[in-house]
């Protein structure tokens, strides 16, 4: 992992999937239909070129597997996270070309000794046609950040997942610029994030960290710096928290966590010239 990755997706954990989808649609985003995972979670997807926001809820349609000695349970984590910390940004996910290799690399680096996790499901394109998609995940863990999951995601059938039609949004939004994480002491998490992303050269200031990735960046700010930048308060809790998502849009706007199920959206217009 010597070259920077791109973000594959960011997870917004909610209690009411339909209400969250309606809120995003009200903001002018196209939101996909509900999908069901075989391990008890449900999602709806807001897709952009090469990256997506996953609206995720815990369902009752399938049993949730518990964590094992070398097994990170995606569904159990989100069930417990929702009960403990409530709604909001819950996971930072990098793109992977080889999840098995990533899982091995994470174990060697000491940031997560978990077996890779494969699953598949059916999905639907915006035209209603059904497609088969499959994924393999490699999990990492920042022990100081119990409320945020970190993993790399390999798409087994990317041609069935990504859709140019799904990436067109009525509000004109064109892409995800990156996540904004918050932490009381961002430098405490620098080593983990460097190992997780493969980025060795990043910017550190008194306000936090900025880690460049292909097509964007991960910003890690103190709660005070986040409040000054976003104009809203950061969520509480220990360690790294996914507090906001930066989105390229025609007009700048802040949608606060109070209005959007615990997660802030920073819509950012490109500067003139």
UniProtKB/TrEMBL annotation:
It comes from Hansschlegelia zhihuaiae. This is VOC family protein. Transmembrane segments: none annotated. InterPro entries: Glyas_Bleomycin-R_OHBP_Dase, Glyoxalase-like_dom. It comes from the Bacteria. Residues 7-194 form the Glyoxalase-like domain. It holds the Pfam family Glyoxalase_3.
């Amino acid at each position: 992992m010597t070259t920077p990755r791109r973000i594959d997706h960011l997870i917004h954990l909610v209690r009411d999937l339909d209400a969250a989808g309606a809120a995003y649609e009200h903001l002018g985003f196209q939101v996909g239909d509900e999908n069901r995972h075989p391990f008890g979670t449900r999602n709806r997807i807001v897709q952009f070129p090469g990256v997506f926001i996953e609206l995720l809820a815990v369902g009752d349609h399938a049993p949730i597997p518990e964590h094992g000695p070398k097994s990170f349970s995606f569904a159990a984590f989100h069930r417990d996270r929702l009960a403990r910390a409530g709604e909001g940004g819950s996971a930072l996910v990098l793109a992977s070309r080889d999840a098995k290799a990533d899982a091995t690399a994470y174990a060697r680096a000491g940031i997560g000794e978990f077996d890779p996790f494969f699953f598949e499901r059916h999905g639907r394109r915006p035209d209603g046609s059904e497609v088969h998609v499959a994924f393999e995940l490699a999990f990492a863990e920042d022990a100081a950040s119990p409320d945020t999951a970190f993993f790399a995601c390999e798409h087994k059938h990317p041609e069935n997942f990504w859709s140019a039609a799904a990436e067109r949004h009525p509000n004109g939004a064109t892409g995800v610029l990156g996540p904004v994480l918050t932490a009381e002491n961002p430098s405490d998490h620098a080593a983990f994030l460097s190992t997780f992303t493969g980025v060795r050269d990043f910017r550190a200031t008194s306000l936090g960290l900025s880690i460049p990735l292909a097509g964007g960046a991960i910003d890690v700010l103190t709660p005070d710096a986040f409040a000054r930048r976003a104009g809203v308060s950061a969520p509480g809790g220990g360690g790294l928290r996914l507090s906001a998502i930066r989105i390229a849009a025609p007009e700048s706007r802040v949608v606060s966590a109070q209005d959007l199920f615990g997660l802030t959206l920073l819509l950012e217009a490109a500067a003139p010239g």
